[in-house]
Amino acid sequence: MPGTTEFEGMLRDASLRVTRPRLAVLAAVDAHPHADTGSVISAVRGELGAVSHQAIYNVLGALAEAGLIRRIEPAGSVARYEVRVGDNHHHVVCRSCGAIADVDCAVGDAPCLSASHDHGFVIDEAEVIYWGLCPDCSASRSRSSL
Predict the structure, then answer these.
(1) How many C-beta neighbours within 10 Å does residue 56 have?
(2) CA 66 → CA 25, 29, 106, 111, distances in Å?
(3) What DSSP designation does 75 have?
(4) Is the CB of residue 21 less than 8 Å from the CB of residue 44?
(5) 135: Cβ–Cβ under 8 A, 6 or more apart, which residues?
(6) What's the CA angle centered on 6, arms 36 and 128, to 5 degrees?
(7) pTM of the prediction?
(8) Which of 20, 32, 69, 125 could serve as a FRET partner for 141 with CA atoms 20 to 30 Å apart?
Protein backbone atom coordinates (compact mmCIF):
# COMPACT_ATOMS: atom_id res chain seq x y z
CA MET A 1 0.00 0.00 0.00
CA PRO A 2 1.49 3.37 -0.99
CA GLY A 3 2.12 5.88 1.76
CA THR A 4 1.67 9.63 1.92
CA THR A 5 4.97 10.28 0.15
CA GLU A 6 3.96 8.08 -2.79
CA PHE A 7 0.52 9.71 -2.97
CA GLU A 8 2.15 13.16 -2.94
CA GLY A 9 4.39 12.08 -5.83
CA MET A 10 1.40 10.71 -7.77
CA LEU A 11 -0.45 14.02 -7.37
CA ARG A 12 2.58 16.07 -8.43
CA ASP A 13 3.23 13.80 -11.42
CA ALA A 14 -0.38 14.39 -12.50
CA SER A 15 0.13 18.18 -12.11
CA LEU A 16 -2.35 18.29 -9.21
CA ARG A 17 -1.80 20.30 -6.06
CA VAL A 18 -1.09 18.21 -2.98
CA THR A 19 -3.92 18.81 -0.51
CA ARG A 20 -5.04 16.98 2.61
CA PRO A 21 -8.42 16.03 1.07
CA ARG A 22 -6.72 14.61 -2.05
CA LEU A 23 -4.28 12.61 0.05
CA ALA A 24 -7.11 11.36 2.29
CA VAL A 25 -9.26 10.32 -0.69
CA LEU A 26 -6.35 8.46 -2.32
CA ALA A 27 -5.64 6.68 0.97
CA ALA A 28 -9.33 5.80 1.44
CA VAL A 29 -9.71 4.40 -2.09
CA ASP A 30 -6.44 2.50 -1.74
CA ALA A 31 -7.52 1.00 1.60
CA HIS A 32 -11.03 0.13 0.38
CA PRO A 33 -10.95 -1.13 -3.23
CA HIS A 34 -14.27 -0.70 -5.06
CA ALA A 35 -15.49 1.72 -2.38
CA ASP A 36 -18.62 3.72 -3.06
CA THR A 37 -18.72 7.46 -2.47
CA GLY A 38 -20.38 7.08 0.93
CA SER A 39 -17.58 4.81 2.12
CA VAL A 40 -14.95 7.23 0.85
CA ILE A 41 -16.70 10.13 2.60
CA SER A 42 -16.78 8.20 5.90
CA ALA A 43 -13.10 7.26 5.65
CA VAL A 44 -12.01 10.80 4.76
CA ARG A 45 -14.10 12.34 7.55
CA GLY A 46 -12.62 9.78 9.95
CA GLU A 47 -9.18 11.08 9.04
CA LEU A 48 -9.78 14.80 8.51
CA GLY A 49 -12.99 15.62 10.36
CA ALA A 50 -15.55 17.83 8.66
CA VAL A 51 -15.22 17.70 4.88
CA SER A 52 -18.19 18.45 2.64
CA HIS A 53 -19.74 15.87 0.32
CA GLN A 54 -19.12 18.25 -2.57
CA ALA A 55 -15.41 18.59 -1.77
CA ILE A 56 -15.02 14.82 -1.84
CA TYR A 57 -17.04 14.50 -5.06
CA ASN A 58 -14.78 17.15 -6.60
CA VAL A 59 -11.63 15.33 -5.46
CA LEU A 60 -12.91 11.99 -6.79
CA GLY A 61 -13.66 13.65 -10.13
CA ALA A 62 -10.26 15.32 -10.35
CA LEU A 63 -8.41 12.12 -9.42
CA ALA A 64 -10.39 10.07 -11.95
CA GLU A 65 -9.83 12.66 -14.68
CA ALA A 66 -6.10 12.63 -13.92
CA GLY A 67 -6.08 8.83 -14.18
CA LEU A 68 -5.03 8.30 -10.55
CA ILE A 69 -8.20 6.40 -9.69
CA ARG A 70 -10.74 4.54 -11.78
CA ARG A 71 -14.50 4.97 -11.54
CA ILE A 72 -16.56 1.89 -12.32
CA GLU A 73 -20.35 1.75 -12.54
CA PRO A 74 -21.76 -1.76 -12.73
CA ALA A 75 -25.39 -1.79 -13.88
CA GLY A 76 -27.74 -1.20 -10.96
CA SER A 77 -24.92 -0.08 -8.66
CA VAL A 78 -23.61 3.24 -7.47
CA ALA A 79 -20.23 4.42 -8.73
CA ARG A 80 -17.27 2.65 -7.18
CA TYR A 81 -13.63 3.73 -7.11
CA GLU A 82 -10.29 1.93 -7.17
CA VAL A 83 -6.62 2.85 -7.44
CA ARG A 84 -5.81 0.00 -9.80
CA VAL A 85 -5.55 1.88 -13.09
CA GLY A 86 -3.89 1.51 -16.45
CA ASP A 87 -4.00 -2.26 -16.78
CA ASN A 88 -7.49 -2.63 -18.29
CA HIS A 89 -8.55 -5.31 -15.82
CA HIS A 90 -12.19 -6.31 -15.46
CA HIS A 91 -14.61 -7.04 -12.62
CA VAL A 92 -16.91 -9.74 -11.31
CA VAL A 93 -20.03 -8.59 -9.45
CA CYS A 94 -22.28 -10.63 -7.17
CA ARG A 95 -25.92 -10.41 -8.29
CA SER A 96 -27.09 -10.89 -4.72
CA CYS A 97 -24.95 -8.74 -2.39
CA GLY A 98 -23.12 -6.52 -4.91
CA ALA A 99 -19.61 -7.59 -3.88
CA ILE A 100 -17.01 -6.71 -6.52
CA ALA A 101 -13.65 -8.33 -7.25
CA ASP A 102 -10.96 -7.68 -9.85
CA VAL A 103 -10.49 -10.06 -12.77
CA ASP A 104 -7.30 -9.84 -14.81
CA CYS A 105 -7.58 -9.84 -18.58
CA ALA A 106 -8.19 -13.35 -19.84
CA VAL A 107 -5.71 -13.22 -22.72
CA GLY A 108 -3.64 -10.77 -24.70
CA ASP A 109 -2.81 -7.12 -24.30
CA ALA A 110 -5.10 -4.15 -23.69
CA PRO A 111 -7.81 -3.75 -24.77
CA CYS A 112 -8.05 -7.53 -24.15
CA LEU A 113 -10.90 -7.93 -26.60
CA SER A 114 -11.25 -7.03 -30.23
CA ALA A 115 -14.54 -5.60 -31.39
CA SER A 116 -16.18 -7.40 -34.29
CA HIS A 117 -16.51 -3.98 -35.97
CA ASP A 118 -14.82 -0.84 -34.66
CA HIS A 119 -16.95 1.60 -36.72
CA GLY A 120 -13.84 3.70 -37.26
CA PHE A 121 -13.13 4.13 -33.54
CA VAL A 122 -9.60 3.73 -32.21
CA ILE A 123 -10.36 1.36 -29.35
CA ASP A 124 -7.99 1.51 -26.38
CA GLU A 125 -10.01 -0.17 -23.63
CA ALA A 126 -12.58 -2.91 -23.18
CA GLU A 127 -14.76 -2.98 -20.09
CA VAL A 128 -16.08 -6.38 -19.15
CA ILE A 129 -18.20 -7.14 -16.13
CA TYR A 130 -18.82 -10.73 -15.18
CA TRP A 131 -21.97 -11.40 -13.14
CA GLY A 132 -22.67 -14.27 -10.75
CA LEU A 133 -22.86 -15.15 -7.08
CA CYS A 134 -19.98 -14.62 -4.68
CA PRO A 135 -18.90 -17.61 -2.55
CA ASP A 136 -20.87 -16.40 0.51
CA CYS A 137 -24.12 -15.83 -1.41
CA SER A 138 -23.70 -19.08 -3.32
CA ALA A 139 -23.20 -21.04 -0.09
CA SER A 140 -26.13 -19.26 1.54
CA ARG A 141 -28.36 -20.08 -1.42
CA SER A 142 -27.25 -23.73 -1.29
CA ARG A 143 -28.03 -23.93 2.46
CA SER A 144 -31.48 -22.40 1.99
CA SER A 145 -32.41 -24.92 -0.70
CA LEU A 146 -31.77 -27.90 1.60
Answers:
(1) 22
(2) 14, 15, 27, 20
(3) T
(4) yes
(5) none
(6) 40
(7) 0.83
(8) 32
Specify burial of residue 37 (Cβ count, 10 A radius: 0-12, 13-18, 19+).
Answer: middle
Written as one letter, the residue type at 15 is S
Instruction: Give the total residue count for the chain.
Output: 146
pLDDT along the chain (146 residues), means of 10: 84 96 96 95 95 96 96 90 88 91 74 77 83 91 74
Q: How far apart are CA 41 and CA 24, in angstroms?
A: 10
Give the residue from 66, 57, 67, 59 showing the smallest Cα distance to 88.
67
**How would you list the strands of the sheet with 100-103, edge to edge?**
100-103, 90-94, 129-132
Query: DSSP 3-state assignment of 70?
Result: strand
